[in-house]
């Protein structure tokens, strides 16, 4: 497979393994943590792709790898059609400039001692993007306004603790916008916010995509928030994508039992629709000792004997929808 | 919402500082000492460096109108020596602790931030320094290098950084894990930038508190050295006053004023710095840990509701 | 649990008002005249944005307010006893033994150097000082079993537990003295959906098997819809709306409830646009005149800016018309209570009449 040039980002069989355990003086743990274990993913230009999974499924490691903070163990990453492994020096730095991240916790991800201006200006200083402080200030004000903080001047000298949670998250978004990124990785950007303002932040992200053509990889554990604004949904379990498809395909006709279970536990705000929930017991297993065969079989409510033996390949269900489960043909 | 700004703004800091009586008491004590040290030539009735003619009556003379705190074995005014002595204590305290803080702070931040082998090497070295008893080591080095004021400052400063290094390392470790550091890394910031912009400003309050406490230790160390006879002979210090008093028969002459005065000075300064340090610690670092089943320390139970209900 | 409707409620809160007193400033009205009742085994959702007085109200039920907090009016009756008139030692006896609270984020407040088992044991010992160590150990094992933790894990430390397991341990601790009421303040915030579902399932089962009454303090309307029998929506320290769960979700009358529901993503209606409520809840020391919600209300009219609406009973005819063809909720049967009156504090309710 090659990357299609229409993708902002393409991942091919990406792996990221860590050494398990601390390196002892004499004893070494040779086992590996398979945090990301063969991910294939395309993020189209101007697309919003939701990456859904529980903690421990590898979505955070994947994000750090995309940011260049972790080196992939194997596999390929293409950024706008260019193999990232071939990028060096300035070109590599430029690529990292173009992928920015919005973090989950707007209370923790802002340095409490820096003013809003210093926070939003920081990426410009790090990347020496504008030579003069006047130019930087103009860019900071522009970014704050793009992030919906108006009038921007009134925010410049404030400290994070003087802002509300929603405003802080807008500051985080502004700081990720100043470098004109083409890709935003948004890691649960609304989960720490009040329900009443979540829509504001989601609409802001959707708006940025519409106005500036930014591609967004939206990392979350909550189907509820992505249903309304993602173009596609990818479901990740133990380091691999188990189902991917257009939002309505995945929500209306989920095919992987893990996706079905996740969807069944999303609380529906209507007491008349209390549904039978498929609550998976236990937690995502440790990615050190991956189960044989299908990695989901120990928790799968419909697992059969063969699931223990064969690692299921992705089955194409429609040009845009595929799922990795052996039992899909049984569905018919 | 548990949202405590890590550093208080200047005004807020001063407000809660003023309410902290311990810190305020320490500050006042130190302000008085500093005033005495700076204006010693103006305040002191005599110049300790000037030679005096000694008569039998002027040795260990009792407190009188001419000598409010009496005289010492050389017939010199104790009050003047006492006032000038504060200069040495403060100088040594401030400069030696500055050296300690710079060394300890740097090693602690580097060890905590870089981790890995660097951290292991630095912390092993710190542990070794920590287990060597400070005083004998200081005495030996000062004795070898000759007791000059500069040497005393250097030796005390170079030995007293271990606790600082350990504290700063622990603080750095916890700051390093905070999300805004990860965010800075994700922007593409280098180590130096992160250390300067994100780690150091948050370690600073701890350093300030620690340096105040270290100063009092350095003052005690200097007094001990002088008392043991390892003082700079060219300047008057409180430890030296005690040393002369003990060696030259103040006890047998019942000249209590020669002993009490420098002792009081040492206690005054050490207490002042300690109070200020602990007060600052309370102001800068209010702890709010509590257990699920115990009542929140910030939450007192209400008194029984005043209105009676039938 | 088939309590007859005539029986006295387990908990009856009437006109509870809480002020925060700061020197040199007028008192801030954090909670004003909130009333509700709770039957044994009933689950109530206490809903609103942060800063609406939910947590203050629940702390006041246990008389655990911060030093500036004062209960200035009202009554809290537990099994007919007036809690606000009790002396502190008597109140301490009610706390945890009869009414326990799972604090928000408390799962991160476990002592890292003490095993989970002995932390639960400590809690038991505090309230039953004469229990022998083997009895305490047996009780700890029983509690852990109740919340689905293997007994062997009692000897492990909090860091060996996942977030979900720590939250289970916190629930076990709240159950240590077999209380009749558990107040859970955001019990599932910051947990994954699947773990969230496990914890909610656990609380629901405990409620069924132990006859526990539960107050869920949350901003997650999904959780409330799934688990609660009735709902108290708070805004700016006052009751915005109080009704059974079906009424709140299917015929809400207060614009705040309506807006809140529109802001919550609903997978069953993926086409509906998500709504946000611009602005913030008022600070208790700067309450607007008139209706507290008027600055953010889409249906605001003149009277809202000047008159504070009373808590009015919504015409029952209206509500039964709306839910005609629907044969009651399973929950109102479960608690054996008829639907509570539907109350809302909005001038529009009055206009309808």
Q: What would you say the CATH architecture of chain B is?
A: Orthogonal Bundle
Strand segment count of chain B: 0
Provide the residue-averaged pLDDT of chain B. 82
Q: What Rg of chain A, in angstroms, do the CA atoms define?
A: 21 Å
**CATH superfamily grouping of chain B:** MetI-like
Helix content of chain A: 25-40%
Element pattern of chain A in H and E? EEEHEEHEHHHHEHEHEEHHEEH
Radius of gyration of chain B: 25 Å
Number of helices of chain B: 12
Q: What is the level 1 CATH name of chain B?
A: Mainly Alpha
CATH topology of chain B: MetI-like fold
Task: Supply the helix-strand structural class of chain A.
Answer: alpha/beta
Low-confidence stretches of chain B: 1-7, 287-310
Number of helices of chain A: 11
Major interchain interface with per-chain residue totals: A-C, 43 and 48 residues
Examine the coordinates and then state which fold CATH places here, giving the name of the CATH topology of chain A: Rossmann fold
Q: What portion of the residues of chain A fall into strands of 2 or more residues?
A: 15-25%
What would your notes on this structure say?
The complex is a heterotrimer of chains A (332), B (310) and C (353). In chain A, strand 7 (183-187), helix 7 and strand 8 (215-220) form a beta-alpha-beta unit. In chain A, the strands form 2 sheets. In chain A, strands 6-7-8-3-9-10-12-11 form an 8-stranded mixed β-sheet, sandwiched between helices. A 4-stranded antiparallel β-sheet of chain A has the order 2-1-4-5, covered by helices on one side. Chain A has one domain (7-22, 29-331): P-loop containing nucleotide triphosphate hydrolases (Rossmann fold), CATH 3.40.50. Chain A has helices spanning 59-66, 89-98, 116-126, 133-146, 153-156, 165-177, 195-212, 223-227, 247-252, 257-264, 328-331; strands spanning 7-19, 32-44, 48-52, 74-79, 82-83, 99-102, 183-187, 215-220, 232-237, 240-246, 315-318, 321-323. Chain A has 11 helices and 12 strands. In chain A, 30% of the residues lie in helices and 22% in strands. The model of chain A has no long low-confidence stretch (mean pLDDT 87). Chain B has a single domain, classed as Orthogonal Bundle (MetI-like fold), CATH 1.10.3720. Chain B is built from 12 helices and no strands. Chain C contains 13 helices and 12 strands. An 8-stranded mixed β-sheet of chain C has the order 6-7-8-3-9-10-12-11, with helices on both faces. Mean pLDDT of chain C is 84; it is low at 1-5 and 317-338. Classes of the chains: A alpha/beta (332), B mainly alpha (310), C alpha/beta (353). Chains in contact: A-B, A-C, B-C. At the A-C interface, helix 7, helix 8, helix 9 and helix 10 of A face helix 6, helix 7, helix 8 and helix 9 of C.
């Amino acid at each position: 497979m090659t990357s299609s040039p229409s993708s902002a980002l393409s991942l091919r069989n990406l792996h990221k393994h860590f050494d398990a355990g601390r390196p002892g003086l004499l004893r070494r743990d040779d086992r590996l943590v398979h945090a990301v274990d063969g991910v294939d993913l395309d993020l189209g230009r101007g697309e919003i792709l939701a990456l859904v999974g529980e903690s421990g499924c590898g979505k955070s490691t994947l994000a750090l790898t995309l940011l260049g903070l972790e080196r992939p163990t194997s596999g390929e990453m293409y950024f706008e059609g260019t193999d990232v492994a071939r990028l060096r020096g300035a070109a590599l730095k430029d690529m990292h400039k173009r992928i920015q991240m919005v973090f989950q916790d707007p209370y923790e991800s802002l340095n409490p001692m820096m003013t809003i201006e210093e926070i939003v200006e920081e990426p410009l200083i790090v990347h020496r993007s504008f030579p003069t402080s006047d130019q930087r200030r103009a860019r900071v004000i522009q970014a704050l306004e793009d992030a919906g903080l108006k009038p921007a001047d009134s925010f410049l000298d404030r400290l994070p603790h003087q802002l509300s949670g929603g405003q802080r998250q807008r500051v985080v978004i502004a700081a990720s916008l100043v470098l004109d990124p083409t890709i935003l990785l948004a890691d649960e950007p609304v989960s720490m916010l009040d329900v009443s303002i979540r829509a504001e932040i989601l609409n802001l992200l959707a708006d940025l995509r519409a106005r500036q053509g930014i591609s967004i990889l939206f990392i979350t554990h909550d189907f509820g928030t992505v249903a309304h604004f993602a173009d596609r949904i990818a479901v990740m379990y133990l380091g691999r994508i188990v189902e991917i498809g257009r939002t309505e395909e995945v929500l209306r006709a989920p095919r992987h039992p893990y996706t079905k279970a996740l969807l069944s536990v999303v609380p529906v705000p209507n007491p008349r629709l209390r549904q039978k929930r498929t609550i998976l017991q236990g937690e995502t297993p440790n990615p050190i000792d991956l189960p044989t065969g299908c990695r989901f079989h120990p928790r799968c409510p419909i697992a059969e004997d063969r699931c223990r033996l064969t690692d299921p390949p992705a089955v194409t269900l429609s040009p845009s929808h595929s799922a990795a489960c052996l039992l899909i043909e049984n569905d018919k | 919402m548990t949202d405590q700004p890590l550093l208080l703004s200047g005004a807020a800091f001063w407000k809660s500082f003023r309410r902290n009586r311990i810190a305020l008491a320490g500050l006042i004590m130190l302000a008085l000492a500093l005033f005495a040290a700076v204006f010693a030539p103006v305040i002191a009735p005599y110049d300790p460096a000037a030679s005096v003619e000694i008569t039998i009556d002027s040795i260990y003379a009792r407190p009188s109108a001419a000598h409010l705190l009496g005289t010492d074995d050389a017939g010199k005014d104790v009050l003047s020596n006492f006032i000038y002595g504060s200069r040495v204590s403060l100088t040594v305290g401030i400069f030696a602790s500055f050296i300690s803080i710079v060394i300890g702070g740097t090693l602690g931040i580097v060890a905590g931030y870089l981790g890995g082998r660097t951290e292991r090497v630095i912390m092993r070295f710190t542990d070794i320094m920590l287990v060597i008893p400070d005083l004998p080591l200081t005495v030996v080095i000062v004795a070898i290098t000759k007791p000059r004021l500069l040497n005393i400052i250097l030796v005390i400063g170079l030995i007293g950084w271990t606790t600082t290094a350990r504290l700063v390392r622990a603080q750095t470790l916890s700051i390093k894990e905070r999300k805004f550091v990860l965010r800075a890394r994700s922007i593409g910031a280098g180590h130096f930038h992160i250390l300067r912009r994100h780690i150091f400003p948050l370690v600073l309050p701890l350093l300030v508190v620690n340096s105040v406490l270290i100063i009092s230790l350095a003052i005690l160390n200097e007094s001990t050295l002088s008392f043991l006879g390892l003082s700079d002979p060219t300047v008057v210090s409180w430890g030296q006053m005690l040393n002369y008093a003990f060696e030259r028969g103040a006890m047998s002459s019942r000249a209590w004023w020669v002993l009490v005065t420098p002792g009081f000075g040492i206690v005054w300064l050490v207490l002042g710095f300690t109070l200020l340090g602990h007060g600052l610690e309370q102001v800068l670092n209010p702890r709010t840990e509590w257990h699920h089943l115990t009542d929140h320390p910030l939450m007192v139970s209400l008194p029984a509701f005043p209105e009676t209900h039938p | 649990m088939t309590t007859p409707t005539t029986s006295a409620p387990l908990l009856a809160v009437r006109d509870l008002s809480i002020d925060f007193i700061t020197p040199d400033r007028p008192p801030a009205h954090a909670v004003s005249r909130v009333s509700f009742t709770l039957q044994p085994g009933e689950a109530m959702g206490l809903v609103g944005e942060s800063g609406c007085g939910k947590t203050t109200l629940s702390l006041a039920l246990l008389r655990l307010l911060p030093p500036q907090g004062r209960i200035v009016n009202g009554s809290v009756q537990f099994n007919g006893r007036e809690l606000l008139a009790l002396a502190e030692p008597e109140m301490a006896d009610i706390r945890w033994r009869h009414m326990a609270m799972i604090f928000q984020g408390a799962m991160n407040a476990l002592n890292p150097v003490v095993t989970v088992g002995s932390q639960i044991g400590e809690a038991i010992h505090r309230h039953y000082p004469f229990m022998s160590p083997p009895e305490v150990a047996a009780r700890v094992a029983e509690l852990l079993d109740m919340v689905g933790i293997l007994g062997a894990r009692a000897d492990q430390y909090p860091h060996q537990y996942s977030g979900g397991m720590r939250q289970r341990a916190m629930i076990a601790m709240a159950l240590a003295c077999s209380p009749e009421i558990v107040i859970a303040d955001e019990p599932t915030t910051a947990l994954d959906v699947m773990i969230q579902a496990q914890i909610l399932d656990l609380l629901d089962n405990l409620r069924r098997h132990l006859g526990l009454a539960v107050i869920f303090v949350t901003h997650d309307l999904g959780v409330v819809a799934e688990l609660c029998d009735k709902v108290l929506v708070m805004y700016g320290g006052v009751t915005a709306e109080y009704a059974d769960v079906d009424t709140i979700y299917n015929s809400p009358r207060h614009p705040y409830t309506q807006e809140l529901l529109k802001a919550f993503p609903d997978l069953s209606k993926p086409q509906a646009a998500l709504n946000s409520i611009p602005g913030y809840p008022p600070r208790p020391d700067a309450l607007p005149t008139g209706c507290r919600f008027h600055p953010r209300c889409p249906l605001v009219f003149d009277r809202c800016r000047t008159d504070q609406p009373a808590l009015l009973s919504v015409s029952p005819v209206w509500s039964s018309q709306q839910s005609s063809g629907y044969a009651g909720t399973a929950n109102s049967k479960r608690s054996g209570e008829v639907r509570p009156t539907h109350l809302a504090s909005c001038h529009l309710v009055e206009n309808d009449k």
